[in-house]
Every structure is written in C-alpha cells, then in structure tokens.
Write a structure and sequence with these properties.
Number of helices: 12
Helix content: 25-40%
Structural class: alpha/beta
Radius of gyration: 25 Å
C-alpha cells in the first residue's frame, strides 16, 4: 500500500498530469502591455535549460527520481539521472526502465556511489536538481556555482507538529501516527517532533498509544504494515536516540532485522541529540508547551523546516502559527497529504531547500523563462531618441499615467 501510494501511484499521477496539461504549459504566455510599449505584443516563452542532472535519494528512490524527471522531460531537457546507491534493487529497475524507454543521448542513468556523484558534479550541466541532506546539498551548490549552474535543492529539516488544546483527539492522534510512521519514519516531510499544549498532552498521549496498537498490533515487528530501517548505518544512528527521554510507547529494536519499533518519547530536553538533527526514523519526541511564544522559541532553534503541521479547531491560533513561522509547506489537521496536490509548489527554504517543484512547478523548475516584446515598424517613439531637451516631462506622463 505504501509503496504503490507513495512511489508508483504518485509517478503515474504526475505523468498523466503532465500529458494532460503540457500543451497549455508550452504555449507562449501573453502578458499585459505597458504605456511605453502599447504597440508591442509581449510574451513569456518557456525553453529547456539543456542538459539537467537529477540526483535522487534512497528513502523514496522511485518517486523522487521520476517526479523531477517527468517535469524535466516535459520542459524539453536531456537528463543524466543518478539514483541512490543505497537502494540497489530500485536503482537497477530505474536504469532498466529508462534505458528501454529512451535513447541514452536523451536520458542517461549513471549508477554508483558518492565518488560517481562527485565526478558528475565536476561536469558542466545546465540545471541540477538534488534531493537529499543539507550537508550534501551544500556540496552540490558549491560545485554548481563554479559554472553558475542553477539548482533546485530539496532537503529536509526538523518539521514541527503543533497540537493545540482545541482538537479532536482521536483524529489528531491517527493523523500524527500515520504521518510519522509511514515508510518507518523515513520521510523528509514527516512530523519530526510534537509540541503539545499542556492541557491536552496527557489525553493525546493516551490516544497515541491506543491507536499505535490498533495500527500495528501488540508487536509491530510482526505487522505486515510496518517497515524496516534502510541499513545498519542509519539503524545505529537511530538507536542512539532511544536514550533521549522517557519512552511511553515502543523502544524495542533488533539489529539483525533492522527493526526499530514505532517509538514515542516524552522529553523536555531541547539540547538532546534527538533535537540536533532530523530524526528520519520511527522515533517521535513529545514536548509540552503553554504559550504560542514558547512554541516560537522552540521552533527558532531549528528554523525554516521543510514541513509544518498544526492541529487545532481555533482559526485564530492556526493563523497565528502560520503567520509567525517560516517553512516550506504544511497542513492543518492533517500531515503528509498536502504533498499529493500537484497544483501546490513543494519545496523548502533556507536549510530545507531552494526552489520548488510538482506539476507545472516542475516544468517551470526545468525551464528558462525567455521574454519577448514584439512590435512592427508602423509606429516608433521618436521622443526616446536624443537630443532629450525637456522630454522627461513626457516620459513621466507615460510612466505614471
């Protein structure tokens, strides 16, 4: 269910969306005239950058390769695709599918590890699209800067989930658990930590524990609906976080199976290791707050998250949280589903990314917007030519009419 919904299904939706709308996207866009150019027709023309490099990550290796690729192809680019070496089987499938569907002069796949990615970044591309960690994103941007290559960087961050006192407790708990433990927490837009109002905290924690058992049973390691950690490196990093507070649910782990139970940790230590980096796994810290100012102070320690989630029925509180915080995108009373809408641009800011994509926004990310002002010879503004004398008065009339 998770694989089809997040990987194959989303890609098929994106392909169909592009096919349906491409004729509209590629049309010259006519724009409004200005007084000085009243006799001209003005257009914006989308043209491909040229040859694009797409570097994709391991957590959704199929989707996060093909979603940018669909838009790059729609915009008319040739592409070099570098899938993640961590997901070897999926990388092989991507290579086979693309080699069967495209000439290698159009779309080429290069498999390999970090050294291959490094070699690719030494080449001159016309556009680079990278999805991954901010640490690697900095390297990509530095390499791209040498050739003044434009980049789109899609990275993660510590995405907060604020739970106000005015909520439907069960619906809130179910949405948080689904968003956090989908793909075993290995989702860049997952709620990274909870900020729960003190008046609702105890009731919410009870609901989280209840619904966790409903979702995955008494032993999640036996559930067919719960995944595993990608490899031992990430497994060991995550296990170290299990000592960061009071475990109220989960906490079990098994290295041989790369299993970490869906875990909820109650804590108040903002300096703990679990709050110094994106968790990217099935561990959910819960913090208590009493005022919106306190929420702002906590979020400011990890600014510009990729996602931002609010659960509340108080429209005033919702608006205040949205207006007081900067983030890539998010949801009110839901978690991951905002990403599914192709009409919404998806992307971060600051540490969580540069640029955006999805649907037409991907087409735009891989297109240069060329402008044309087109007029004939039947009319010419003689006043624009020297000598100027007192023509500035006429200029002011045209500019500010």
């Amino acid at each position: 269910f998770e694989s089809y919904g997040s990987e194959i299904g989303l890609v098929l939706l994106e392909i169909n969306f592009a096919i349906k709308n491409l004729n509209k996207w590629i049309k010259w866009k006519k724009v409004k005239k200005t007084p000085l150019l009243f006799s001209a027709k003005n257009y914006i023309i989308s043209e491909p950058f040229g040859v694009a490099l797409i570097i994709s990550p391991w957590n959704f290796p199929f989707q996060l390769t093909f979603l940018p690729l669909v838009g790059a192809i729609a915009a008319g680019n040739c592409c070099v695709v570098k899938p993640s070496e961590t997901t070897v089987a999926t990388s092989g499938i991507i290579s086979r599918l693309l080699s069967e569907a495209f000439d290698k002069e159009h779309i080429a796949v290069v498999e390999g590890g970090p050294e291959i990615a490094g070699e690719l970044l030494e080449q001159k591309f016309d556009k680079i699209f990278f999805t991954g960690s901010s640490a690697v994103g900095k390297i990509v941007m530095e390499k791209a800067a040498r050739n003044l290559t434009p980049v789109t960087l899609e990275m993660g961050g510590k995405s907060p989930c604020i739970v106000d006192k005015n909520i439907n407790v069960d619906i809130t708990a179910k949405n948080i658990l689904w968003g956090k433990f989908f793909n075993t927490g290995q989702t860049c837009i997952a709620p990274d930590y909870l900020l729960v109002h003190s008046q609702i905290k105890q009731e919410l924690e009870a609901a989280l524990i209840k619904w966790l058992r409903v979702f995955f049973g008494p032993d999640p390691s036996q559930s067919p609906d719960y995944g595993r950690i990608i490899n031992k490196k990430h497994y060991r990093r995550l296990v170290n976080f299990l000592n960061e507070g009071n475990i109220i649910a989960g906490g079990q782990f098994n290295e041989d199976d790369l299993y970490i139970a869906p875990t909820i940790i109650e804590t108040s230590d903002l300096d703990a290791a679990v709050m110094q980096e994106e968790i990217f796994g099935p561990i959910l810290p819960v913090f208590e707050y009493r005022s919106s100012a306190e929420v702002g102070e906590i979020i400011a320690r990890n600014p510009d998250p990729l996602s931002f989630f609010i659960f509340s029925s108080d429209s005033g509180a919702i608006d205040k949280f949205i207006n007081d915080n900067s983030f890539g995108g998010g949801s009110v009373n839901d978690t991951l589903l905002y990403y599914v809408n192709q009409n919404l641009p998806f992307g971060g800011r600051g540490k969580s990314g540069i640029g955006s994509y999805r649907g037409k926004h991907t087409f735009d990310a891989f297109s240069h917007k060329k402008t044309i002002s087109r007029k004939g010879f039947h009319f010419d503004f003689n006043f624009k030519y020297p000598p100027y004398r007192n023509k500035h008065r006429l200029l002011k009339k045209f500019l500010f009419r």
